[in-house]
Design a protein that fits this description.
The protein is of the alpha+beta class. It folds into 2 domains: 30 residues; 96 residues, Immunoglobulins (Immunoglobulin-like, Sandwich), CATH 2.60.40. It is 22% helix and 34% strand. The strands form 2 sheets. A 5-stranded antiparallel beta sheet has the order 1-8-7-4-5, with no helix packed on it. It has a 3-stranded antiparallel beta sheet with strand order 2-3-6, with no helix packed on it. A hairpin with a 2-residue loop joins strand 7 and strand 8. It is elongated and about 90 Å long.
């Protein structure tokens, strides 16, 4: 009789584990990365594959200088946990819909927007310094 109870207990634990794994996989498929192309002054987008979702939330704008970039989040909600990776090794937890960053040097940067560790959107941009002519 004890053997049957032990087998029943193991079966219950196995089913609970399967349900847990299924729910985790289901949640991960809800947030597919969004790859977009965005043109901003002095920012040259790199070609990306077709977007899997058309609800782009991350908008990128040129700041006052070539190295200053402003990021705007559409439909920002204060209770939402969003993280913005600037592509230069700096990440910021967003507390408002607008943030700015100043890059040290020209180059290609891969900007990523996360919600609770899920990638929502990614943009690859090339930041160009102005040409100086003598």
């Amino acid at each position: 009789m004890r053997e049957y109870l032990l087998l029943l207990f193991i079966a219950i634990i196995g089913v609970a584990g399967l349900v847990s794994i299924h729910q985790e996989v289901k949640l991960q498929t809800q947030y597919q990365p969004i790859l977009s192309r965005q043109l901003v002054v002095n920012l040259t987008p790199k070609p990306q594959s077709a977007a899997t979702n058309t609800s782009h939330r991350l908008k990128i704008f040129q700041g006052d200088s070539w190295s200053q970039i402003r990021f705007d989040i559409e439909n920002f909600q204060e209770d939402e946990s969003l993280l913005l990776d600037f592509g230069n090794g700096v990440r910021e937890t967003l507390t408002e819909a607008h943030t700015e960053v100043t890059y040290d040097k020209p180059g290609v940067y891969f900007i990523k927007l996360f919600r609770e560790n899920y990638l929502l959107e990614a943009n690859e941009i090339e930041l160009l310094a102005p040409q100086i002519t003598l």
